[in-house]
Specification:
It comes from Neorhizobium galegae. This protein has about 130 residues and is α+β, with helices and mostly antiparallel strands. The protein is built from three helices and nine strands. The structure holds (S)-Methylmalonyl-Coenzyme A and cobalt (II) ion.
Length: about 130
């Protein structure tokens, strides 16, 4: 079911500071900030030779990363995104295996304009998983 790692996400309290750190201190190429109101986050992608790191800042009053940042005020690793060929087939297989699919269970359009879904961290060794159909 799983393909490549698409990105690893880090929740950050201040996207401007985090972007400067990745660009100027760590010397990486970074994208422009992109507000994603449907996801309650603003994102910046750090573009690495083999994958991407997604920096996430809360957007709006109901951000899904707000509680995480309250518990981890300086930020922290938030999720890992794996690529799948068929997200609906993957969802149905995982649901049948007892995994909790977050939200209403229907894929949303993610930061790359492709369908994404999230799986509950408590069902996957304490790691929040995002699936992206590529
Ligand atoms: C746009 C896009 C893209 O790439 O295309 C994105 O990535 S959007 C990225 C942002 N969107 C999302 O993350 C959407 C899916 N996420 C969610 O629905 C939420 O973040 C949840 C995963 C349900 C967690 O929500 P919240 O923290 O408010 O709930 P909660 O406090 O009840 O947490 C339940 C338990 O899970 C733990 N928990 C919470 N977030 C966690 C995380 N990221 N990794 C590992 N564990 C985590 C909490 O500590 C708690 O454990 P204890 O009970 O042991 O204390
Ligand atoms: Co993501």
């Amino acid at each position: 079911m799983l393909g490549r790692v698409n990105h690893i996400a880090i929740a950050v309290p201040d996207l401007g500071i985090a972007t400067t750190m990745y660009r100027d201190t760590l010397g990486a190429r970074v994208s422009q900030a992109q507000a994603l109101p449907e996801h309650g986050v603003t994102v910046v992608f750090v573009e690495l030779p083999n994958t991407k790191v997604e920096l996430l800042e809360p957007l709006g009053p109901d951000s899904p990363i707000a509680a995480f940042l309250e518990k981890n005020p300086s930020g922290g690793m938030h999720h890992i995104c794996y690529e799948v060929d068929d997200i609906v087939a993957a969802r149905d297989t995982l649901k049948a295996a007892g995994a909790r699919v977050l939200g209403d269970g229907n894929p949303k359009t993610g930061a790359h304009g492709k369908p994404v879904l999230f799986l509950h961290p408590k069902d996957f060794n304490g790691t929040l998983i995002e699936l992206e159909q590529v």
